[in-house]
Amino acid sequence: MQSLIVMIIIFLWITFNQLKERKINPKKLWIAPVLLAYVAISSAIEIKSIALNYCAFFAVMIILGVGVGILRGKTYIFRRDDKTGQLFRKGSLLTIAIFFVIIILKVISKYEFQSPSNKFLLNIIQFGFLFEQVGSYAGRNIIFYLRSRKEIV
């Protein structure tokens, strides 16, 4: 029961944060994807027996993530301040829905491959989702950067 309450609180917190208007700073858009890529690559290197097909899986997950990130980036609502020219973004319900579909897929994969015999496969899938998140941040920030360069939003 307590975990359900915690999940509801986290869901509401994420929803409210996604719906708040935030300023886009184009100079800082590269920081989160680069840090997350560093974490993903350094974590994947720690796996001792990565075969070439797992590396291909990670590459596919990055490409899939870029597509999801571009889709998420296009679902944001953008506003430019007339006085300062600063660009602001605000999430929509579709943005939140896409985010939670990805979270649900991660949870389902974790429970699907939970047996001890599937532990290595579960690690590969979890790293795949981490690489997907790298691509998603990169794709979303590409849209933010392109929108920040336009004069009309």
TrEMBL record:
Does the entry feature the keyword Transmembrane helix, yes or no? Answer: yes
> What UniProt keywords apply to this chain's record, in alphabetical order?
Membrane, Transmembrane, Transmembrane helix
Q: Which parts pass through the membrane?
A: 29-45, 51-71, 91-108, 120-139
Protein name per the record? Uncharacterized membrane protein, YXJN B.subtilis homolog
Species name? Clostridium acetobutylicum (strain ATCC 824 / DSM 792 / JCM 1419 / IAM 19013 / LMG 5710 / NBRC 13948 / NRRL B-527 / VKM B-1787 / 2291 / W)
